[in-house]
Amino acid sequence: PRRTKRTARKNDVSLEGKLERVVKRHDELAALLASPDQKDAQSFARNSKEYSDLTPLVEAIGEWKTAKRELGDLEAMLGDSATDADMRALAEDELPALKTRVPELEHRIKLLLLPKDEADERNAILEVRAGTGGEEAALFAAALFRMYSRYAALHGWKFEVMDINETGLGGYKEATATITGRNVFARLKFESGVHRVQRVPETEASGRIHTSAATVAVMPEAEEVDIQINEKDLRIDVFRSSGPGGQSVNTTDSAVRITHIPTGVVVQQQDEKSQHKNKAKALKILRARLYDAERAKRDAERAASRKSQVGSGDRSERIRTYNFPQGRCTDHRINLTIYQLDKVIEGSALDEVIDPLIAHDQAERLAEVE
């Protein structure tokens, strides 16, 4: 027990030292930003971003220090025999709330101190593909795509459809969208993987439950500065776009297929009537895929020592099951089951799955640094 107390004291000292450095840096940045000598626009923007990133942490540190001081004052008051009965009663009344608040604020500070995923604040590119299960898988892929569209609307994000490859019965073989807004990738990044559905298909006459699947990929949108694409590495084919069932929707060669020769990544775009616009969209998706592959490689190296993680980003990993007969949605990574499948599928209860995934990931990362 003595060693545990000594370790806790040492951790407190190291945490306090870290927090003092954060506050000092925040003050330095405030002085820099207020200085009339700050003329370089790039360094001003960089300092301004760092200052705004540190502000929530500095505010939490201030609250934590105040709560700790108040707790110390109350405990001193209760330990003093000269304290009168009224003051003692008041202190005893306030003590439990402060004893809860101090560790809560400390936990919040530790979360804010965790290294940020640089991609969290980015917009995302969503790809949904029908997997095993034929037409039923395509109908499920379409339902998932609509779920994310409604979820985006509920969060005030812009959901822009980039490409949809439909089947004749209203299903999607594959569909792509750009989602733009605040912290889009941070909230959607754990959606990548295989989503499985168990239900009686509309096309099934005998009423038997079928299992089919769709694959979801959520990638951070990449800027040109993130991924340099050499034109020599691209093979660009143009062809006539077609609608469901091969029905021609365009009489010009406006559809574009881009192959990135070094990696073999192929992107096809035929949603726009203009070849130029299709090429621009295809390059945007290609850039995101290459950036995502780089991130996945880096994360795999970093995660080699990490036994459990919420999602490896492995597209072949089965992450969630939507069971319609039982009305349940189960996320297999954190063994979470909620019985509001209808609300999950319409996007309104998806946060009840996403929030625990984010919390679990934070807990895992905290355990690594503590």
General description of the model:
The chain has 370 residues and is an alpha+beta fold. The chain has eight helices and eleven strands. The protein has an eight-stranded mixed β-sheet with strand order 2-3-1-5-4-9-10-11. Strands 6-7-8 form a three-stranded antiparallel β-sheet, with helices on one face. Helix 1 crosses helix 2 and helix 2 packs antiparallel against helix 3. It starts with a helix and ends with a helix.
Shape, per Cα inertia axes? flat
Number of helices: 8
- Helicity, as a percent range: 40-55%
- Radius of gyration over all CA atoms, rounded: 26 Å
Quick one: how many beta strands? 11
What spatial order of strands do you see in the largest sheet? 2-3-1-5-4-9-10-11
Spatial separation of the terminal alpha carbons: 18 Å
Major β-sheet annotation: 8 strands, mixed
Range of strand content? 15-25%
Q: What is the multimeric organization of the chains shown?
A: single chain
- Helix/strand-derived category reads alpha+beta
Taken in chain order, the helices and strands follow as HHHEHEEHEEEEEHEEEHH
Poorly predicted sequence stretches spanning 5 or more consecutive residues: 244-250, 305-309
